[in-house]
Amino acid sequence: MRPGPSPSTPPPPPEFRALHVERFIAISVCGPLVINTWTGPTQHGAPQARRMLDAMKRLREGSHAKLLLYVYLIGETASIPDGEARKINAQLLEYFDACVGIHEGNSLRASLVRGVVTSTAMLSRLRRPRMPQIVSTAGEAARALAPQAGGDLDEAAILAAIEETRRLSLS
Length: 171
Prior knowledge:
With 171 residues, the protein is of the alpha/beta class. It has five helices and six strands. The chain has helices at residues 46-61, 83-92, 108-123, 138-145, 155-170, and strands spanning 16-22, 25-30, 33-38, 69-74, 98-103, 133-135. It has a six-stranded mixed β-sheet with strand order 1-2-3-4-5-6, sandwiched between helices. β2 (25-30) and β3 (33-38) form a beta hairpin. The longest helix is centred in the N-terminal third of the chain and has 16 residues, at 46-61.
């Protein structure tokens, strides 16, 4: 019989897995964390929102029944989603135990995107911890989510997963 890891040894980081990649949009999973990046000027419509909602239902009913955390990154040049997509995105938040949103940029356009996403979350009538915590950098998101990851992910692993998902959306 092989000895197991000692209690002081941290578990190996969970496998990073891309669920969906298209131009400027990527969705991935890393342990209990789902990462959704929307980095560029592409229309985020109802089909993309439905795809994400269906994937989260499957995760919540299967491998992530105990804990499902969500971080999304909206780049400065991201387009504002259409009305139907906003409604679906509001439903999406119900599947997560905690959510952190990264809203990049200081331009008027970035402010509009932040406003649309924040109002979508408010209209969903979610209470904490499901109401998104809005931050401006991936590092802040990693710090906010690490304590909620149940020991599965540390801050560095969360940051690496966010950056890898961003890289996929830009390739």
